[in-house]
Amino acid sequence: MQQHLEKEDGDIEGPFTIALAAAKTENDTSSQVVVAGSMELFTDSTDQIVSGSNVSMFTDIMTNLTSGEDDNTSVIPVKDYKMSTITITSISTIIGGLAASIFIPVVLIIIGVVIWAVRRKK
Predict the structure, then answer these.
(1) How far apart are the first and last CA of the chain?
(2) Is there a contact between 34 and 61 (Cβ–Cβ < 8 Å)?
(3) CA 41 centroid distance within chain
(4) Which of 8, 38, 57, 110 is deepest in the core (most CB within 10 A)?
(5) Spatial separation of the C-alpha atoms in residues 79 and 15, rounded to whole Å
(6) What's the 3-state SS for the chain?
(7) 92-100 — which CB contacts under 8 Å span 24+ positions?
(8) Could you tell me the sign of the dihedral formed by the alpha carbons of 85, 88, 89, 90, in that order?
(9) Which of 24, 56, 15, 19 is nearest to 34 (CA)?
(10) Are the C-beta atoms of 42 and 36 separated by less than 8 Å?
C-alpha cells in the first residue's frame, strides 16, 4: 500500500469533525458526553503542532463537563518550563577555581591566626 499526500478523486474536503459533544436532558436530569476522534489529539507532540490549541480544547471540554450547579471547579493550565543552558567562559572557570581552592582557604587561615593571636594575648 503506497501512501502519499496528494488529493485523489473521491477524497473528502474539510473541515473535519475531530470531536463531538452531545447533551441529553430527561426528567430534570442532564448528561453530557464528548467523543474525540483520536487519542493523539491530546498528546504533547500533536499539541506542539497546533501551538497549544489542543490543550486549550481539552481544558474547555473538562470545564464544560465539570460545570454543574455549583461552579466550584476549575482547570489550571499547564505551565511550560524551558530549560536554558548556562555558558561559562574559561576565564570565569579559572577564577572561580582559584578562589575556591586558594583564596578562600588562605583568608580563613589568616582569620584563624588573627583570632588565635588576639585570644592568646588576653
Answers:
(1) 97
(2) yes
(3) 17
(4) 57
(5) 30
(6) CCCCCCCCCCCCCCCCCCEEEEEEEECCEEEEEEEECCHHHHCHHHHHHCCCHHHHHHHHHHHHHHCCCCCCCCCCCCCCCCCCCCCCCHHHHHHHHHHHHHHHHHHHHHHHHHHHHHHHHC
(7) none
(8) negative
(9) 19
(10) yes
b (16+ CB within 10 A) / e for 69-79:
eeeeeeeeeee
d(CA 46, CA 57) in angstroms, rounded, equals: 13
Does residue 77 contact residue 63 with C-beta atoms inside 8 Å?
A: no
pLDDT tens for the chain, 122 residues long, are 567 778 888 888 877 777 888 888 888 888 888 888 877 777 878 777 777 777 778 877 777 777 655 556 565 666 667 778 888 899 999 999 998 999 999 999 999 999 999 999 87
Q: Which three cell numbers stand for residue 4?
A: 502519499
pTM: 0.41
What the block records as the C-alpha cell of 34 is 464528548
